[in-house]
Amino acid sequence: MKIVCANCEEQNNYEVEKEGYYSLSCSDCEADFQVIIGIARSKRSRGHKPSQSREYSIRFFQNGNDDFIQFESNCYDDVELKSKDIFVISSFDGKPRILANINIHKYWVINTKPTEIDDAMVMTAIVLFIFIGLVIVAMISAS
Ligand SMILES: [Zn+2]
Question: Which chain regions cross the lipid bilayer (predicted)?
């Protein structure tokens, strides 16, 4: 089954059944990530536009048993998931990041990677400080 890595978002084929909990190792970035594969019974979601977030609760079948997952998404766009659709939720560090609907061959990012944004912000701040420092040094030596 094609599964999207919860870390690097590369799509690869993995030997998995259509229902179950798995811990997989990405063949691209080698990160370990967790997946839940189930058959949807019902999906409820409530979007919150000001914070561009959404809350999900999904009931599904897991090897004949009823199961339930609830999580928050920092993406406002709703996912498409109908009753009886097979879905895959890929999680990284305990956080659901990707939800794929196998029936319609589509996937959605449900939580963007926080570390990458933080790293980018720290880098921007460092570059800005160096730039301001250079401007001050240039101003001092010019006067
Ligand atoms: Zn990966």
Answer: 120-142
